Known about the structure:
Layout: H1 2-27, E1 46-47, E2 54-56, E3 62-71, E4 77-83, E5 87-97, E6 103-107, E7 112-114, E8 119-122, E9 128-134, E10 143-150, E11 155-163, H2 175-216
Parallel strand pairs: 2-11
Antiparallel strand pairs: 1-3, 2-3, 3-8, 3-9, 4-7, 4-10, 5-6, 5-9, 10-11
Protein name: Copper chaperone PCu(A)C
InterPro entries: LpqE-like, Lxx211020-like, PCuAC_sf
Keywords: Signal
Amino acid sequence: MKNNNVWTITALTAAxxxxxxxxxxxxxxxxxxxxxxxxxxxxxxxxxxxxDLWVRAADSGMTSLFGTIENLTGEELEIVxxxxxxxxxVELHEIVVDExxxxxxxxxxxxxxxxxxxxxxxxxGEDHLMFIGLHEALVPGDVVEVTLEFTDGTTESIExxxxxxxxxxxxxxxxxxxxxxxxxxxESTEGDGDDEGHHGHSEHDHAETAEESTVxx
Length: 217
């Protein structure tokens, strides 16, 4: 009789342990699936793949940002302004053809639209973000943060890596810059003319002096 009780208790204990184990497995949540390719925050509206958004390396002055920015939403977004701790200001620039048929760079009126679930592509010689007044040199490998503002006033930050592409396709001597350069050249030319005038006047004086000396003798 004693042995029967022992077997009964053992069976009940085993059944209890199995039941507890089953409940524990049922209550334990499944591990979340992490998408390693999608590194954008859950509430992000824009995204750019690693190394796809980049800034041209520069020692000082101005430089540009290029690359692709994806719109993760089902509605069109429009970038109307930008700023970065890397420079005094950031402008949205486009390349247009002026009345003389030259390609020149100018600040765009409005903004850069990004189609719903589409992308904004910025390439050298085309639309880009212009960093003006760099605070320090940007060398290859640096990471630059840029905050973009949309038409509704909201903002979102994104990062770009600094690269040295070995080129500078944007016509930087545009509008005021070009006019200033032409003005400097004109002044320089006028200065050369003045020097020639003074030089000619000096030769004339020298000739008169020589003539008077000859007459005296």
